[in-house]
């Protein structure tokens, strides 16, 4: 788009769309990993600590 001399607003919209797509992929990957890791943790303190760790990581993606 830049090489085609597209308007700056069009370029920025495409950058924003690409960024949102990458963010969504990150969330999907993390959610799947959280599910996988949490499935073997059971109940109790260990599960709570693991969930806290993953939620902290999840929040860094925003």
What does this structure look like?
The chain is mainly α and 62 residues long. The protein has one domain. It is built from two helices and no strands. Helix 1 (8-39) packs antiparallel against helix 2 (45-60). It is rod-shaped. The protein starts with 7 loop residues before the first helix and ends with a helix. The model has no long low-confidence stretch (mean pLDDT 81).
Question: How are the secondary structure elements laid out?
Answer:
Layout: H1 8-39, H2 45-60
Helix pairs in contact: 1-2
Could you provide a short overview of the structure?
The chain contains two helices and no strands. By secondary structure, it is an all-alpha fold.
Question: Which key terms come to mind for this protein?
Answer:
mainly alpha, 0% strand
Task: State the helical fraction.
Answer: over 70%
β-strand number:
0
Overall number of domains: 1
SSE succession: HH
What fraction of the residues are assigned to beta strands by DSSP? under 5%
Q: Please, what is the average pLDDT? A: 81
Derived from helix and strand composition plus strand pairing, the structural class reads mainly alpha
Q: Unreliable runs, pLDDT <50, ≥5 residues? A: none
Contiguous helical run count: 2
End-to-end Cα distance, whole Å, is: 27 Å
**Shape category:** rod-shaped
Largest sheet: none
The whole-angstrom Rg is 18 Å
């Amino acid at each position: 788009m830049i090489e085609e001399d597209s308007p700056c607003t069009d370029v920025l919209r495409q950058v924003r769309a690409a960024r949102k797509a990458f963010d969504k992929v990150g969330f999907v990957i993390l959610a799947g990993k959280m599910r996988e890791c949490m499935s073997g943790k059971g109940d109790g303190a260990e599960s709570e600590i693991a969930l806290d760790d993953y939620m902290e990581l999840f929040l860094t993606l925003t």
